[in-house]
Amino acid sequence: MSRASDSDRLLGRAAIVTGGARGIGAAMARCFVGAGARVLIADVLDSEGAALARELGEPARYLQVDVRERSHWDSAVSLCQEAFGLRPTVLVHNAGVMTQGTVASADAESLCLAVGVNVLGPIIGTQACLPGMIEAGGGSVVVVSSIASMSVGPGFIPYAVSKAGNAAYARAAARELGEYGIRVNSLHPGGVETPMNSGPDFAALDKDAWFGRMTIPRIGRPDEIAAAALFLASDDSSFITGTQLVVDGGQLLGPRSAWKS
Question: Is 180 a catalytic site residue?
Fold first, then answer.
């Protein structure tokens, strides 16, 4: 069977992309619309999300969604039906928070925020979309995790623990939902040039020096992560579920060389 053309890979499907207003999520929204999907951009960044929806035109809508709230998810599913005449059968859990904390210092507030957005959000969102996917005969859920779930960077314990948690959830959901034709996979980016990775937490990091030591000697681009998400969302990965797709330019392999003095 030949692969569908790029513009047809998600034709006739509605997708929800959380954290879709900027960064990796915005790249996914653009990519999915280009592949023929109708896309609901779900985020809490109203101005950026609405601007992206206007840019993408008729195939896109924006809705303010706090992924921890079931009522917000129910509204998202309803809007897909009203705006596109489709229930969402592609779901990308991309919304995330990068919270700091060491083994000694991580506090309950930071841990609850990280787990709430990065773990509880995908669980609640999948539950909200599940009836429509079952009725449609299948779907694809992509949980955006991180290589931090596999190789923990110091100082970000809440983030790493929550990303490991959402990857574990993806595997568990894959086992339960396969009989309904629903595939669930986790996507594990390495360092990517996004507003999150350009914030004050990384102000002192020399990105060129750091990523220049890696196997592919540069930081990743949002469109590269979006292309991997499209693969998992589309029928190109029809026999893939419960897997962990790492897209990190070889960062888990470690640096090619030691720091120069």
Answer: no
Active-site position among 62, 159, 169, 180: 159
DSSP character at residue 253 = G
pLDDT tens for each residue of 63-84: 999 999 999 999 999 999 999 9
pLDDT tens, residue by residue, 32-66: 999 999 999 999 999 999 999 999 999 999 999 99
Q: What SS3 string covers 150-181?
A: CCCCCCEHHHHHHHHHHHHHHHHHHHHHHHHC
For residue 132, the surrounding DSSP H or E stretch is helix 121-136
* Domain residue extents for the chain: 6-241
According to CATH, the topology of domain 6-241 is Rossmann fold (3.40.50)
Question: Taking Cα atoms as reference points, which of 80, 172, 95, 84 lies closest to residue 131?
Answer: 80
pTM exceeds 0.90, yes or no: yes
Question: Which of 32, 77, 34, 18 minimizes the C-alpha distance to 233?
Answer: 32
